[in-house]
Amino acid sequence: MRVNGNWDIYSQRVGGRNAAPIVNDPGRNERGVAYSPDGSLIAFHESNATGGIFVAGATGEAVRRVTENGFDPAWSPDGKQIAFATEEINDPTSRWGDSTIWVVDVGGGTPRQVIETDAVQPSWSPSGERLVYWRNIGGQRDIYTVPVAGGEPTAVTNDAAVDWSPVWSPDGRYIYFSSDRGTSINLWRIAVDQSSGRVSGTPEPVTAGVQASAGLPRLSSDGSKLAFRSRVASVNPVAIPFDPVAMRAGEPVLLDTQNNIRIPSGTSPDGKQLAYYSIGQQQEDLFIGPVEGPMRRLTDDPGRDRMPMFAPDGRSLFFYSNRDGRWAIWTIGVDGGGLRKVSGPPTGAVYVNVSPKGDRVAFSDDAGREVFTVPVAPGSETAPTKLTGVATGSGRAFTATGWSPDGSRLSGFASGPSGRPAGVGIYDFGSGTTTVLSTEEPFLAEWLADSRRLIYFAKNGSELVVLDTATRSRTVVPVRLPWPASEEVFAISPDNRTIYYGGMRSEADIWIVERK
User: Fold this and answer.
1) Which residues contact 79 (CB under 8 A, 6 or more apart)?
2) Is the pLDDT of residue 473 over 90?
3) C-alpha separations of 506 from 68, 232, 234 in Å
4) Domain 2-223 adopts which CATH fold?
5) Cα 213 vs. chain centroid, distance in angstroms?
6) Could you report the per-residue pLDDT of 154-177, keeping only the tens digit for each?
7) Secondary structure of residue 190 in the 3-state scheme
8) What is the pTM for the complete model shown?
9) CB 484 within 8 A of CB 438
10) Span(s) in the chain for CATH 2.120.10.30
11) Which CATH number is associated with domain 232-506?
């Protein structure tokens, strides 16, 4: 649970009221706790850019590190091994890159890779022979199983629904998982043969009427009890008055109070219009509207449309979408017409950035390891150009999220193997080099009009920071945010006088269902 901004591990007796701390380390955020089969040990991961699997006694004693990286530990049925993934999952609709699954002995040693394709949140079959996990392919989230010894994965689901957080039932007959295949995210189960991983039935609903997103199911050893998390979240646009010279902020103003998700990601060149998107909802669309007026839906289809940015002429928007089966860069007129695919490499394209002249866009591949540029003129059909010098050292990659007003540089974040942000960086077109300026973890850093300073939200969206790229001086802008920034995606007006961000509100509960 989160206490005073820090994530620590607590336990609570089933049916009890008071939670007691097990691991309480103010210098480290711990998540993903899992009890060993005999209940004598716990495993958990450190929540940062690289992670790391730890093991401790059931009451938190004798904490020791087992791996240098990794997230979401899962115990083998005999308690001798732990499976883990290389990316931490907080929201199934928001992924940083590709993850892989590894297995390590509880006593430590060199981990062994199980599968090379994208795979997260592993869980063991009761026989100990297979792992169930979910993966992201072009924006589609599906569940698979794979032999622990390695081999070809077997699909459990293959449809447009978001399927995630799978676990095997203790008797090995079912896989339980979370899915939005109904009207909201609930728990489902599907019959499988645990020896082969092949499906022997169709998905069946397990929960309904929770009035929240249900996920992370866990079953008791005898299968009579099911625990899960329910979570309610909304993101509302907030405007912050800002003085870019004095670097002072005014009182934030809430622009919309509806209980939905509307994240501002772009402002029109005249500063009068905002573009929004709705990541994490069952249908992810684009919206547009006056700064202080009602917004209208710009797209309305099954495709996941994300992070719209205005073209410099203000007549169209660029965004990325999986509407044709793989992430790619698209453009659409502000009136909803002229929808057109711009480009994308075979590996997919995400995080679009528009050049100041509007003649090119920059983007990253969907693995978060390469950056490309491509002309946007209709009919150009030019292959994307991969930028050289993007690697930042120490196994980190650079993901571009902003183009400087003078056109000379890109801003973005450096990421480690997990894909999660691990530093603010800039790419210089002239020298073809990338420089990491800080070790903070913002997702997006916007350029101010001077093409020298960057502004971003730090500390999980709770702190507004201005960074001078020449001196590397860091200034915290005093402001009382009503809510932290969602994924740190935001927009800034052309005159730099207003910052627009999505204020994140969420709350979660733990539920237990008992079979009578």
Assistant:
1) 36, 37, 38, 41, 106
2) yes
3) 31, 5, 7
4) Neuraminidase (2.120.10)
5) 16
6) 999 999 888 999 999 999 999 999
7) strand
8) 0.83
9) no
10) 2-223, 232-506
11) 2.120.10.30
